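QA checklist item 7 of 12: single-chain prediction sanity check.
[x] sequence parsed
[x] length recorded as 146
[x] structure emitted
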Amino acid sequence: MAVGRGGTGRSGRPRVTMPERRRISSGGPWEATASYSRAIVVGDDCWVAGTTDAGPDGRSLHPDDMAGQARAVFDIIERALLEAGFAFADIVRLRMLVTDMTRKDELMAVQSERFRDIRPAATLVEVSALIDPSLLVEIEVDARRG
């Protein structure tokens, strides 16, 4: 938040201007119907929504392949970050949801590939289901420039 130069508001206090809010879309199958954006940028912060490897039909492009889904998801997230003006290395928070914790090693191997030098704060949680039964993993990230 910044104090604007345009005088004061009705309260007599200086006007406060908010940083611009930008929406990033990947054209994913649920963005329009569920009214959300792949990512939101405000100032030096970017929040990337829960991301899966769902194709146009809403089903996984890598059925029963947790590592393949994770790689595809990280690629989608990286494209959204780049479009937003961020780098993958700007990720500070990682949240991963899996439908089968017994397969966590498959996901964590991919996580290690992509985050070896970044090492963001991270959470891994098992959930009973994702939006389509073919999806095994959903990942969201928060990024900060600087």
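[x] summary fact logged: The helical segments are 31-34, 66-84, 104-115.
[ ] second reviewer sign-off
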